[in-house]
Task: inverse folding
């Protein structure tokens, strides 16, 4: 029996020839056309879609907030009734936490991490596409429900019994609970992808103590996701079964417990804050060294701080529950834990100040956004310490003081650095610079609008204004500060509009960026902007933390990887020593079809438990076809094998 | 600061009332409602802790910003082409190292100090003397408050709603329960908040040291009308409080004239009796506020409206308009019956 011998595979030389570069582009490019777009698995394509989708949800969530601020702009307002208002704040919180803050950080890292660690792809690229589609379909389901006036209305925290079958009849809360299933599935898959990518796909020489701090941040975040998200998946699944098939997990009349929900939810919910905040810290640690023209001060202390934050984040969930009847002495433990988590954050803040202190500063827009962190996040951190003290918490818990605090922490800690990151990496992603002039207007309007919106809320909380009220009486004396906050919200909206205009104009006619417009030191700046499909024509070999700044180091590269197929270099976890070559799969639409089938299962199970049985058949078929071995791929992989 | 807050508050209130009048919802004049204006020991302890932590946090915030500003001011300037200086990788940056170490040490010491202050305040709150306490059981409903004053013998007990009367200077032990969903009991000028949780019983201890009216409000999101689930705490000198208790223990007064007599008849033959109780009549349902002495209360519908004949009529005729989603249906009564019913209810002092 004779079979055609597979064509002898070509391996890349150092430096790669023009033909090899062209072959690599062909091997790693997503296929053309609409079907090709649907089949795309390149991490940069998926990353960009992920970022744009998450930003779209950010804008949607912001518009919901603007509607709320219009309603609260004056007392006894009848613009929006309690029914719609309760949906608005539930949708706003759910969108910002589940559809924007966590996904956008994972999206940024799906795009950036392979470039920063010198890899051609994320691990499990098809799973990465699947995770994106699941995220998109979950978000679309939530907004379709909202558009049909069956949007959830029990708060993003969905406390039982209010969210239970007796006090939230209908399907509103089920859409919320099922959105959790969608986003948690997507988030967990992304966490697995990121951990594997960071541990196994680093360029040779990039030992664990040389990886960029942003990558460290995302690694820590991914581990947190894997421990935190199962808690809320368990909680929301129990809520769904309480509502759908009459289990009594949360029904005190049948031996269930209303507080159980709060423990499970906040065991996820507090780490959630840090898995939004830690990527923000990563952005800070990427941007500050570049614009201070020196490496970060205290790299090891920064890494240990990130890890310490992640551990402590799991030990302070009860500070959301100080007003319940948990034992008083036990609450003191959580006060201590909540205050101690300030220490690793303080270490990082002081190290950044030391870096700036001894640097040569370049005042570009990314640095401005990063500097705002020091004002906004630190102020939010201070109110966080106030909230950590049980007695003060009992006064301001569930008031506008907490609304102010959480926005200072999340916007200061994550969104300002994120916009800094947008301005910083936009040239890498698109090849074009954003306008500095519009960038400054964007920044100052955002900073001023943010403070005008949220600072008055501290005072409103102290004056006794509770959260989640759809209106308030003029007699309460809260009108002036509320009107001020509403004006601030419009200012934020204007600044966001400027950002969108800036992006739009830059895409059409922005200045060309070149490979390294900021003179930065990490690997992503060593390749073209936007990067080629394979990221690096030859995998770099790393000899320091900021490879492009290493004095006199000869740029070294890896030869011998296939240029005709998707082959990546696997390295060891700690030392990043070359271990093996691995062939990655080709683009396919099956992740998309599997995601569609899964969506049918998830949405169907809102209406009948039988959907879990019947809809698992198409899911099984789609997954089988996804993993079915393809003859030509196997042949190509076999041809690359070398006998020992 | 307090002496400046009060007149400003009064002016704001007057202005706000005028605005509300113009808009049609009659204005309730609320009691004191401010976490920083304490009228009892519990809120006083918290206020003292607030001052300590505010001072420490303000100091740290300013110190960090100062550090940043100095860093920005003294550091050099560069641009993207400035060669990045990596020389420090080969040496120990002693100045930065010591600076960061000291800053972290000072931060940690201040955090420990705040922790101690917080725990000491916890202890002070727990040590409120409960000698000679008044006991009240509070049950939260969507969206009103049921208050049961204990007493012995059994006949000394009574039930009221949305208006908690307490004696000045005596501790009050509140037993907190919830009938439907989670609510939170909060009177900022008297004490921190405490949740009312279905299936659990919680307690809250407080004391009012100054006579006056203090506003409270539900602080845990509890559905449609979370915004209008308020109550008043009225702190009276002990003798006035005792007189009020004596009055509350009496059954409702008999109608004194033809209008109120007709009002009572309307009440007893309409659907009102399915939910409400008036002691001394056949109405004894417990699904909605007890109306035995409703005329003596300052507000209607948990702080939504001031009490009075006109407001009572408006409320009974169309509660959904004033408090959308409330569990009380609109009553379709002829105008004369409605007026009589309102007159009767307001006469129940």
Result:
């Amino acid at each position: 029996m004779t079979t055609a011998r597979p064509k002898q595979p070509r391996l890349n030389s150092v430096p790669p020839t023009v033909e090899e570069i062209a072959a690599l582009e062909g091997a790693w490019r997503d296929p053309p056309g609409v079907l090709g777009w649907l089949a795309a698995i390149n991490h940069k394509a998926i990353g960009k879609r992920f970022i744009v989708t998450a930003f779209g949800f950010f804008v949607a969530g912001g518009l919901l907030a603007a509607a709320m601020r219009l309603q609260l702009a004056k007392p006894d307002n009848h613009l929006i009734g309690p029914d719609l208002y309760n949906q608005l704040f539930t949708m706003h919180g759910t969108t910002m936490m589940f559809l924007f803050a966590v996904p956008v950080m994972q999206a940024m890292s799906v795009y950036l991490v392979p470039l920063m660690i010198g890899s051609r792809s994320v691990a499990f690229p098809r799973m990465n596409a699947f995770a994106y589609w699941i995220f998109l379909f979950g978000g679309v389901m939530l907004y379709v429900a909202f558009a049909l006036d069956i949007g959830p209305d029990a708060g993003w925290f969905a406390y039982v019994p209010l969210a239970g079958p007796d006090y939230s009849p209908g399907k509103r809360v089920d859409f919320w609970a099922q959105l959790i299933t969608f986003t948690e599935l997507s988030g967990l898959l992304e966490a697995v992808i990121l951990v594997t990518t960071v541990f196994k796909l680093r360029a040779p020489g990039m030992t664990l103590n040389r990886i960029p701090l942003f990558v460290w941040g995302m690694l820590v975040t991914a581990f947190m996701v894997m421990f935190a998200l199962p808690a809320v998946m368990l909680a929301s699944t129990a809520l769904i079964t309480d509502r759908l098939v009459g289990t009594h997990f949360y029904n005190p009349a049948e031996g269930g417990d209303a507080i159980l929900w709060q423990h499970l939810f906040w065991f996820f919910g507090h780490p959630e804050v840090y898995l939004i905040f830690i990527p923000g810290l990563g952005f800070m640690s990427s941007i500050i060294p570049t614009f201070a023209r020196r490496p970060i001060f205290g790299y090891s202390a920064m890494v240990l701080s990130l890890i310490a934050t992640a551990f402590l984040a799991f030990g302070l969930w009860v500070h959301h529950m100080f007003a319940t009847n948990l034992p008083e002495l036990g609450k003191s433990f959580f006060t201590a834990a909540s205050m101690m988590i300030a220490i690793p954050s303080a270490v990082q803040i002081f190290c950044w100040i030391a870096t700036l202190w001894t640097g040569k500063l370049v005042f570009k827009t990314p640095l401005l956004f990063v500097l705002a962190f020091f004002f906004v996040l630190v102020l939010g951190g201070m109110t966080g310490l106030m909230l950590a003290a049980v007695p003060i918490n009992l006064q301001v818990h569930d008031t506008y003081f907490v609304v102010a605090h959480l926005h200072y922490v999340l916007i200061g800690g994550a969104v300002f650095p994120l916009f800094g990151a947008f301005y910083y990496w936009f040239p890498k992603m698109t090849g074009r610079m954003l306008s500095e002039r519009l960038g400054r207007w964007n920044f100052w309007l955002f900073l001023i609008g943010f403070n005008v919106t949220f600072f008055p809320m501290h005072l409103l909380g102290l004056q006794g204004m509770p959260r989640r009220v759809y209106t308030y009486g003029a007699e309460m004396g809260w009108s002036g500060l509320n009107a001020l906050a509403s004006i601030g919200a419009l200012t934020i909206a204007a600044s966001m509009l400027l950002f969108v205009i800036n992006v739009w104009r830059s895409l059409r006619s922005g200045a060309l960026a070149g490979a390294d417009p900021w003179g930065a030191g990490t690997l992503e700046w060593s390749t073209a902007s936007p990067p080629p499909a394979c990221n690096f024509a030859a995998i770099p070999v790393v000899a320091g933390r900021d490879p492009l700044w290493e004095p006199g180091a000869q740029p070294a590269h890896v030869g011998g990887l296939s240029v005709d197929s998707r082959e990546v270099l696997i390295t060891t976890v700690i030392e990043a020593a070359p271990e093996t070559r691995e062939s990655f799969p080709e683009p396919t639409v099956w992740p998309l079809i599997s995601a569609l089938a899964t969506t049918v299962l998830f949405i169907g199970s809102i209406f009948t438990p039988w959907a879990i049985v019947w809809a698992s058949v198409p899911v099984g078929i789609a997954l089988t076809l996804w993993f079915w071995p393809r003859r030509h791929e196997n042949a190509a992989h076999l041809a690359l094998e070398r006998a020992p | 600061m307090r002496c400046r807050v009060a007149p400003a508050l009064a002016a704001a209130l007057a202005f706000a009332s005028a605005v509300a009048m113009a808009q049609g919802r009659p204005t309730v004049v609320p009691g004191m409602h401010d976490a920083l204006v304490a009228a009892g020991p519990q809120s006083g302890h918290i206020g003292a802790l607030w001052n300590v932590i505010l001072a420490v946090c303000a100091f740290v915030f300013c110190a960090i910003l100062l550090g940043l500003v100095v860093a920005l001011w003294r550091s050099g300037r560069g641009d993207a082409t400035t060669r990045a200086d990596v020389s420090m990788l080969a040496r120990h940056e002693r100045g930065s190292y010591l600076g960061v170490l000291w800053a972290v040490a000072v931060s940690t010491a201040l955090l420990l100090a705040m922790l101690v202050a917080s725990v000491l305040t916890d202890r002070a709150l727990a040590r409120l003397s409960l000698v000679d306490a008044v006991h009240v059981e509070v049950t939260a409903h969507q969206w009103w408050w049921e208050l049961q004053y204990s007493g012995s013998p059994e006949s000394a007990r009574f039930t009221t709603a949305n208006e908690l009367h307490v004696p000045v200077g005596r501790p009050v032990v509140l037993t907190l329960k919830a009938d439907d969903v989670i609510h939170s009991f909060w009177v900022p000028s008297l004490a921190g908040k405490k949740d009312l949780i279905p299936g659990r019983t919680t307690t809250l201890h407080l004391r009012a040291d100054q006579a006056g009216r203090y506003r409270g409000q539900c602080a845990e999101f509890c559905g449609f009308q979370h915004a209008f689930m308020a109550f008043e705490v009225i702190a009276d000198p002990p003798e006035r409080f005792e007189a009020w208790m004596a009055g509350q223990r009496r059954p409702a007064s008999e109608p004194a004239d033809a209008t109120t007599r007709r009002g009572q008849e309307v009440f007893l033959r309409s659907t009102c009796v399915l939910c409400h109780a008036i002691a001394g009549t056949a109405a004894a349902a417990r699904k909605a506020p007890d109306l035995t002495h409703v005329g003596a209360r300052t507000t209607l519908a948990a702080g939504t409206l001031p009490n009075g004949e006109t407001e009572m009529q408006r409320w009974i005729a169309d509660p959904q308009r004033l408090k959308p989603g409330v569990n009380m249906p609109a009553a379709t009564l002829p105008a004369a019956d409605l007026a009589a019913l309102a007159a009767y209810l307001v006469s129940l002092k």
User: Anything to note?
Assistant: Residues 1-5 of chain A have pLDDT under 50 and may be disordered. Strands of chain A lie at 360-361, 540-541, 556-557, 567-571, 578-583. Chain A touches chain B through 102 residues (CB under 8 Å). DSSP finds 20 helices and five strands in chain A.
